[in-house]
Structures are given as structure tokens and as C-alpha cells.
Amino acid sequence: MSDTQQVWDDFGTALRAFIRRRVKDDHVADDLLQDVFVRIHDKLGSLTDEDRLAAWLYQIARNVVTDHYRRRSELTFDETETQPDQVTDDQNLNERVGQWLVNRIAELPEDYREAVTLSELKGVRQTEVAEQIGLSISGAKSRIQRGRKMLKDNLLQCCHFEFDKRGNVIDYQVRSDCVTCGESASGEGS
To answer: What is the spatial distance between Cα 142 and Cα 58, in angstroms, rounded to a whole number?
Structure first.
């Protein structure tokens, strides 16, 4: 079984880069990396399958980053008020991917495009969507759900996404054959 020093030597640089893509500040990334290695040191003896070491390490790093953003979201009202322009990396990535959705919705078949546009972009309640497009409520819900699934499948064919526990996009990689999301194949989120 590996010891903490060996893990540091083998994975320290890669884990720091992984964390740095998810936070804006170098000092914060260093602090989070230190937290990661404290957890690794505390739990390394409990790892039973050394073949899963890398996956285990990156899961710890993801958890530390998620905890960091969770702590930041729990700021008091006064602290939030003094930093109104501060936007997290998660919000930036959610906005970027959200911009792609508009183009992807436009590519849906007309029936689905109309239902998803009303529901997702215009915020129309599903009962009102049903009235506007002349369907039963269950028919409208079904059409919206199928349209959402088409969007999801379309995006997953283009990009690989990583999400935090709240569903925020924390990283993505554009697949080499993607031409519609507006990113180069070598581009990554962050």
C-alpha cells in the first residue's frame, strides 16, 4: 500500500492542477490541496483496492472543492453584500453551458422545441404550456421531458461534464468531433 509521501510524489502536481481548474485563486488552490492531503493521510489506510487509488484521490479532491464552495455559499448577508460582483467558477461554467442550450434547443424538432422553449427559456408553467400548444397536461409534460432528454443526449455527445453535488457544472471537456458548442476540442472548462 502506498504511503502519503508516495501519493504526494505521484499525484501532488496533478491534483493541484485539478483543483486549480475549479477555483480562481492560487492560494485557495494550495489551501485546498493541503486539505486534500490531510484527508488522504487520515484515510489512506482504509483504502482496500490500490487499483482504485487515483479514482479515490480525485473523489477526495472533488469533495474538498465542493465543501469549499458550500462554505462560501453559507456567507452571512453582510459578507455577501460587500462582494456583489463575486461569481464562482461554477456559476461561470453554468452560464457558459447555458448559452449552448439556446442553440441546442433551436436544433430540436419543432414540437419539442416549442415545448422546451416555453418551459425552460420562458419559464411558463407546464399547465400553461399544455394550453398554448393544445395538449393535455400529461402530454405536455411528456413532450417537455422528452425534449430535455434530447438536449441532454445532444450535449453529452458533444462534451464530457463533471457536476458537483448540487448539479453545477464544475468542469467539462469538449469532444474532438463537436462543432456546435463554440469551444475548441482542446478547450476545457474553467
So the answer is: 37
Look at the pTM and tell me if it is higher than 0.90.
no
Distant-in-sequence, close-in-space partners of 151: CB < 8 Å, separation ≥ 6: 101, 104, 105, 108, 116
Length of the chain measured in residues: 190
Q: Rounded CA gap, 77 and 128, in Å? A: 36
- Alpha-carbon torsion, ordered 169, 172, 175, 178, to 10 deg: 50
Residue 131 grid coordinates: 394550453
User: What sign does the CA torsion over 112, 115, 116, 121 have?
Assistant: positive
pLDDT in tens, 49-107: 888 888 899 889 998 988 888 777 654 333 444 343 343 454 567 777 777 777 788 88
Report which of 86, 67, 92 is spatially closest to residue 164, judged by C-alpha positions. 67
- Tell me if 162 sits within 8 A of 154, measured CB to CB: no
